From TrEMBL, chains A, B:
InterPro entries recorded: MEF2-like_N, TF_MADSbox, TF_MADSbox_sf
First and last residue of the signal peptide: none
Primary localisation category: nucleus
Protein's UniProt name: MADS-box domain-containing protein
Annotated MADS-box domain residues: 12-72
Length: 215, 215
DNA sequence: GCATCTATCTATAAGAT
DNA sequence: TATCTTATAGATAGATG
């Protein structure tokens, strides 16, 4: 074996870093991967520990999309409890595929163009227990058309969440989704209803007088 | 000062916990708050460190929505570097309002219904530098109508991302975020193009042969 | 590049105030 | 109920194979 010099004998362990853009490209990439993984793990833990619903999307500086979400909260919980849940029968993405799922734009486009069918329809049209979501289907279809219209100009990402509830309290189930069209030339953009929340200073974002639970 | 008993003299410090749903309600709430904050912080750091774009949405078990996002990547970077950026002139939500912003459904609904205008239009219709995104506007409008149609049945959350790029490589700017209608009775639901990614086992999610950058 | 390793750094569970 | 205080669990920067 080789004799390493004294300085390289020991790892120096973690060092503190400033929160500013990492210059060295290789380091940036490594950090991106590590932290993205860590972020998604944290999100998963939050879901399980607190019965929360969460979704996260991260675009790398190169424009690659990474998505965290869960097909159903149950599936994620099962996963974290080490149970093996068959989610395929529900027509949803297995949790382990999604939690750290990578999405590559060109691939998505290809998939979209091919419009692969199975069992007589798009997979997402497959019947799900107690479906009856005509509106959702209608919405989805319309959304598709619209997206196509602007696909060459903007990146549109859509998240649709449909939750179940037994009582009035805890939503228990979910969906997540994604997708992105390929941006080619762009501009900055506009957003929605969130601004009014940002009325003035920090803690005043949410007005009083609502009876919804705080958690 | 008081003499505490020996057992309470010292904090016991952190203990290991299992990743499973927390039973005690008070603990769950505390944990939810702490971890949500932590998650959003991590997301912000990822954005800054790696020049990435990120957005995250968390629903508490009570159905309250919390959103992490950034109006422009620049604004978030400024924030983390301690610079004070005036984002109001761009018609975007100041970063500090968004990063840990809380969104309460009923409030959002109220805002939406009131359709508050300023300066002759919805705030999000305000001109932004180099706007020219007719398609985006068109899309947004259509989306609104569609969403109304299904608002009573499903919770729809839409994220629209429009990015800038100087070179062909790094998108540099913007995101936006948005909102959800109140679910009342629901079902589980369908999703989109993601399933094909989940073809079979883990690492094979993304097919080879594309020339896009890995980061 | 990807998987490990190790020394630290950071987040946070329980309590105390 | 919100904050503050530890001790400790967990995340991760940098080095290495």
């Amino acid at each position: 074996m080789e004799v390493a010099n004294v300085n390289s004998r020991k790892n120096m362990g973690r060092k503190k870093i400033e929160i500013r853009k990492i210059e060295k490209k290789s380091s940036l990439e490594v950090t991106f991967s590590k932290r993205r993984t860590g972020l998604f793990k944290k999100a998963g833990e939050l879901c399980v520990l607190c019965g929360a619903e969460a979704a996260a999307i991260v675009f790398s500086p190169g424009g690659r999309a990474f998505v965290f979400g869960h097909p159903t909260a149950d599936a994620v919980i099962d996963r974290f409890l080490g149970r093996d849940t068959d989610t395929s029968s529900r027509g949803v993405v297995p949790a382990e595929q999604v939690v750290h799922g990578q999405v590559q734009r060109q691939y998505l486009e290809a998939v979209e163009r091919s419009e692969v069918k199975e069992e007589g329809g798009f997979w997402w049209d497959a019947p799900i227990e107690n479906m009856g979501l005509n509106e959702l289907e209608q919405f989805k279809g319309s959304l598709e058309k619209l997206r196509e219209k602007v696909a060459d100009r903007v990146t549109v990402m859509t998240l649709m969440m449909v939750m179940e509830s037994e009582s009035g309290a805890g939503p228990s189930s979910t969906t997540m989704v994604e997708y992105a069209a390929p941006p080619q030339e762009y501009n900055s953009s506009a957003v929605l209803h969130a601004r009014d929340l940002a009325a003035d200073s920090h803690s005043q974002a949410v007005p009083q007088g609502f009876d919804e639970p705080r958690f």
